[in-house]
Structures are given as structure tokens and as C-alpha cells.
Design a protein that fits this description.
Elements lengths: L2 H12 L4 H14 L5 H8 L16 H12 L3 H11 L2 H15 L12 H13 L5 H15 L2 H11 L9 H12 L6 H10 L3 H17 L13 E4 L3 H7 L4 E6 L3 E7 L4 E4 L11 H10 L5 E9 L11 H4 L8 H7 L2 E11 L2 E2 L5 H11 L6 E3 L2 E4 L2 H13 L4 E5 L12 E9 L10 E10 L8 E10 L4 E8 L5 H11 L3 E2 L6 E2 L6 E3 L4 E5 L2 E5 L14 E5 L2 E6 L11 H16 L1
Parallel strand pairs: 1-11, 6-8, 14-16
Antiparallel strand pairs: 2-9, 2-10, 3-4, 3-5, 5-6, 6-7, 10-11, 12-13, 12-17, 12-18, 13-14, 15-17, 18-21, 19-20
Helix pairs in contact: 1-2, 2-10, 3-12, 4-5, 4-6, 4-8, 5-6, 6-9, 7-8, 10-11, 10-12, 11-12
This protein binds adenosine monophosphate.
Amino acid sequence: MLYADIADTYEKIEGTTKRLEMTDYLVELLLKTPVKIIDKVVYLTQGKLYADFVGIELGLAEKLAIKAISQASGSSEKKVVEKFQKHGDIGLAAEEVFKNKKQTSLFSFGKEEELTVEKVYDNFEKIARAEGSGSQNKKIKLLVELFNVATPKEARYIARTVVGKLRLGIADMTILDALAIAFGEGKENRKYVERAYNIHPDLGYIAKLLASSGVESIKNVSIEVGVPIRAMLAERLPSLEQILDKMGGRAAFEYKYDGMRIQAHINSKSVELYSRRLEKLTSQFPDVARAIKSAFKGKEGIFDGEAVPVDINTGELLPFQMVSHRRGRKYGIEKIIEEIPVVLFLFDVLYLDGKDMTEVPYVERRKALESVIDKSEHVKFAHRLVSSDLAEIKKYFDKAIEDGCEGLVAKNIGEESIYRAGAREFLWIKYKRDYKIELVDTLDLVIVGAFAGKGRRKGTYGALLMAAYNPEQDRFETVCKLGSGFTDDQLANLPNMLGEYKIKDKHPRVWSEIKADYWFVPKVVIEVVGAEITLSPTHTCARDMLEKGSGLAVRFPRFTGKWRDDKSPEEATTTKELVEMYKAQIKNLEK
Ligand code: AMP
């Protein structure tokens, strides 16, 4: 097949914004493509060589593409760069350079060699796979080979594709439409094509199967370990009342962890992890891969969950940003793992020892999940509450927020509650707060206890138990565990510094329901910032003042570095002030 056929189609697609027209052009192209290479044509149209999860990507540096254009055209690199800057698009730059060359070339008459799709794909693949010393020159040479034969129009698309910027604006769903029209034998089969795509999201594979064996073969596509399934997504409703109602009066409410979605695929040979966008994540989360492999008691399985960074000392969840640092990192991962470990909270199982679990209702899936995974330090199950009691659910929501989560995901527990790959429907409904508050004021809190350090903090304290002052009762009421913001030196020095205040048991003026490893006379005041103030069933600060059974807590607290030696503990932030701050926060939100 000639690459010119593809280039012509791309040009037509670029000329329209209408989805239906795009689909027609694609159908036309698909129908004239030999079955043998239809997968390649589909990938090329997506600007790729393989489905994303395979992990072989085009993305040649523009600098190298410019060199290749220059070598193939005889124009200086400077000239090519000028054109690139003029158009802001490597494709148009290449096209213009080669057009000029054609006009001046003596050899542009007569029959020329024509570029085939196979040749283009083949050279692209070699470029994508080339590595090590000398690979840059090799890549340039492979690209020059293509440019030597390409027409200016073909050069436009070759250049864009090779740098990873084809960007025709065709959504996967449009390609799926085109495939269903071209080979689907009628509209009623569209749902089978879509189902196949949802559990095997590889458009090249689907295209080849459809074109070669028809719709019946598509119905038999099944889940495979090593091929990520499109993630099920959650709908949203504005209140817990409406959610409970929509769920038929009773549902499972799971913590909505704020981390990174991970789909883990395990068999006897390997473990692979995929992101929500179906890219391979294994090299960024080798710790998660190891942890789930050893937690799994079966032979083959696919699991869905959320990886969340944790403070190894307090055991508390950390803000998501601390795990996002891992993205794109290839080196130094082991060090990051040690400093900011993650916990994988599993909430679903999609495949288990030969059985497609996506067709099984939620309650059974959860049971199966809990029976094949041995919980460990780094693999846990999503915290949940099955309830029909609105007051209880509201309290549970507060607890989720206090524990560092974004809110709750309600899950349908009826017979219909299958895992709908790729769908955003009301079987799952999320309830989170869309706002983020930053506490502007700092707090001056009193150190009343401490917890033994782990990992790098062995031998010192891992976290401190902090309290506000309640003058009416003349007591110190806890508001948070504080583990962040300390330098290594400060940490090492803590036991020494606090030594003189150490006591065997909780001080009588301290009200705490948390059991600390060490207790202190409330004396030392330090400055703390936090993300916000939340209702808390665990901390005692302002207990029952706002809501029965709830106190207040500072979320994501951090030491500012300031020791408030100038303040006595009775001058620390008071519980009343915290109540006022909490109320002001709510008021701001209502504005
Ligand atoms: P959103 O990104 O706001 O649409 O929320 C959906 C995301 O919440 C999912 O893609 C998961 O990454 C995440 N999530 C966290 N906890 C859960 C849970 N228990 N069940 C389902 N999704 C969860």
C-alpha cells in the first residue's frame, strides 16, 4: 500500500472539523487497506506504532528531525530551523523545504520510487527501538531514507509522526465508529465492537480481527493478563442524600483516595502496572509491583486500585503531589521509594484465575478480592462502609477527609453492579469537595506526645502529637500528628530537646484519645501550617462543640521551622480560635 493513500486521507481529515466527515474518510481508507497491514495503518493514524500499553513510542527529538530534513534536502540546518520557527510545525517546515527542493532539482522528472506504508512503518519502528551509542546517527539515517523518496506532502506527515506530533484530532471513538461501519455488518454490532475495545483497548488489534474474521470473532475477545482494561469511572452527584437515593437506599461507601489509579496485572511470569490512561507504570512503581505480587495468593489476576503516598512515621496519607514526582522518572526511583513509600489501596478485581470478574456483581468481586489478597504494609483494601444510614455516612465522609482522602465513592451493591469497563455511569458515584483551601493563618501548637520513628527516623521521633489550648477547661486538646517540615538535624535533635519534659504517662492537663509512644509536659510551642481544618472523630480539640462526637483536626500539617520560645503553652492557639477558623472556612465556601 502506498503511503500517499494515507497522506491524502490525513489531508482530507485535517480539512474538516466534522466528526461524520472524518469517519467517512477513515472508512474509505480502511476499506482500501490490505488486511495484512490494517493494524499498522490504524496505529499510524493514531500517530503511534503500537497501543500505548506496549510502551514503544515514537518521539524523535525535533533537533534530529531537523538534521534529517537538512541532509535529505540539501538545505542548511539553519534554513530548516528558520522554516520551523516560521510555521511552528515541523511538518509544514519539512513540506516547504522539500517543495523548494523539487522545484530546483533536475531529477524530479520521470518515474520515481514510491513510498509504501510498510517501508514507513518499518523505518519508524527501527527509529523507535534504536538505542545506545550511535543510535542518533542511525535514527537520522533511517529518516533520511524516507525523506529521500517522500513527496513534500508525505514529508509533512512523516515529520510530524516521527516527532510524536501527528495530532489529527481523531478520537479513538471515531476510529471505532469507522471500523464498525467498514467491517461491522450493521449498526447493531457496534456494541460488540465497543465491548471488545473496552476490555482490549488496542485499535490495531480490533481492526485486524474485524477485517480478517468478522464480528463473530469480536464477540469472543476476552480479558487477557498484560492487556489493560479501560477503567470504570464514577458519575457525580451533589449530595449524599441524592447518592443514597440513586443507589436505592443502601450502598457501599469507599474512601476516595487521592493518589494514582493503578491496574495491576499478575501472572506466573510477570507483574505489570498500568495507569488510568493505560500506559505502563511498572518502572515507576517497582515497590508496588513487588508488594502486590507477594500479596496475591492466586495464579493470575487483574486488580484495580489507587496508589497513595504515606508518611512512614505517622502512617498518614500524604498529598497526591508527592507521588506525582515519580512520573517519568527512570533513575533514582529506589531512593524516592525509601523516602516516600506508597500504599496500594485495592478496590476491585477484574480477572481471577481464568475467570472474567467484570461480569460479576460488586459484592462478589469484593469478596473474591479479599480472599485472594493477603493484606500487607503496602497493599491494603479500600476502607469502606456499607450503610443505609445517612447520618452514619456523613460522619464517615468527615473521617475520610480527615484521613487525607478526597471524599467517598459510593458503589452500587445490587445484582446489576458489574464492572463496566470504560464507562462513567451511576453504578459508581463520587462525592468529593471540589474546593481546596489553604489555611492562611499559622497555628501555634503545643507538643504533648511523640511517636517512635521508623525507617530513616529510627532512633528519633517519627511524628509529634500536637494540641491546642482550651482555657475554659485549662487543658490541651489534640489536633494533629505532625511529621512534616522538619530538617534532618531538627529531627535528630528532638529527643534531646524534649528530654527534660518527658514523662511516663499522659499529662493530666492533656486530653487525648490517641495513645502516643512518649508523653511530655505541655511546654514547647511550635508554629504549624495546614491545608485546612476538618471535623475529626479522633482528635479531641473542640469535641462536641460543632457536632456531637466530632472534634477538629488540622489536615496535612507541616512545621514552619519556627520554635515559638516566646510563647507559653497557655498562649498557644486556642480551641475557640480553631472553631472560629473552621466556621470562617465554611462561610467562605458558601459565598
Ligand atoms: P475522578 O478522578 O474525580 O473522576 O474520580 C475517579 C477516580 O477516583 C478513579 O479514577 C480513581 O483513581 C480514584 N479512586 C480513589 N478511590 C477510589 C475507590 N475507592 N473506588 C474507585 N475509584 C477510586
